[in-house]
Design goal:
Blueprint (H helix, E strand, L loop, with lengths): L2 E6 L3 H13 L2 E6 L2 H10 L4 E5 L5 H9 L8 E6 L5 H7 L3 E4 L4 H12 L17 E6 L2 E10 L3 E5 L9 E7 L6 E11 L4 E9 L1 H43 L1
Parallel strand pairs: 1-2, 1-3, 3-4, 4-5
Antiparallel strand pairs: 6-7, 6-9, 7-8, 8-11, 9-10, 10-11
Length: about 250
């Protein structure tokens, strides 16, 4: 399996240096330019490493969300910092290693080799988890991303990178896993803890969102039944063979 890295960076010179270093340690690379793009990509795909320019807006949120991923999908996080960036804040956000600007190929290669032992290979051909999706909660002008942990037609459980503000109703939007359908509406916070976990009921969804949600569950249930039928038949056949063997031994 190949190792791969997502680079959240806009500086052309830095990207050229990072590209040379990543090629030297045999890491495939993909580039994104913003925090929203990075969040979407890290939910949809697995990356062995995540290289984040902490001078870009939303960098700390991307790192915190990456740290929330299950251990089998959690990338090693490399933070790029300049002279004015607080290194302690970078580590608090979840960075495992630091690249100092101006970047040098040798410096980056040393860090990448040190982190290589903690990386997990890209398993893009393996089955995608059914609930790998982001939900965006709108608090005033700020949108807080969170990971969808569980979903049903009435609500969801989620994990945010920080505790939710003390509100009861919050606008939300998310793309149904495995589709391009956007679900939008209002959520009622029914419980929340200090670790960023929360449970919400859908207090109001758009008509299109209700339709998409219902269709998604109908298709999911049909797939699960199709998968369970061969297993049930195999179990029935095994049970029959066991009874026949027991009868023959008497």
């Amino acid at each position: 399996m190949a190792f791969n890295a997502l680079l959240m960076c806009r500086e052309e010179h830095a990207l050229r240096i990072l590209g040379k270093a990543l090629d030297e340690v045999a890491l495939e690379q993909e580039v994104c330019l913003s925090a929203p793009e990075a969040l979407d990509l890290t939910v949809q795909r697995h990356y062995s490493a995540l290289v984040i320019d902490f001078d870009l807006p939303g960098a700390a949120t991307v790192a915190r969300m990456a740290r929330l991923a299950p251990s089998r999908r959690r990338p090693v996080i490399f933070g790029m910092i300049g002279a004015l960036t607080e290194i302690s804040e970078t580590f608090q956000a979840g960075a495992n290693f630091i690249f100092y600007k101006p970047l040098g190929v040798e410096q980056i290669v040393r860090c990448l080799r040190a982190g290589r032992g903690f990386m997990r290979p890209d398993r893009r051909k393996s089955q995608r988890q059914s609930l790998e999706s982001l939900v965006y909660l709108q608090f005033g002008i700020a949108a807080l991303p969170a990971m969808v942990l569980d979903l049903n037609q009435n609500g969801m459980a989620l994990q945010a990178p920080e505790p939710l503000p003390p509100v009861q109703q919050v606008p939300l939007r998310f793309v149904l896993p495995g589709t391009s359908h956007m679900v939008e509406g209002m959520g009622e916070v029914v419980w929340a803890d200090d670790g960023g976990r929360a449970g919400m009921l859908f207090s109001r969804l758009t008509p299109a969102s209700r339709k998409y949600l219902k269709q998604w569950f109908v298709k999911r249930d049909a797939r699960q039944k199709a998968v369970s039928r061969p297993a049930a038949r195999a179990e029935k056949a095994r049970a029959g063979r066991t009874r026949s063997a027991a009868a023959g031994s008497r």
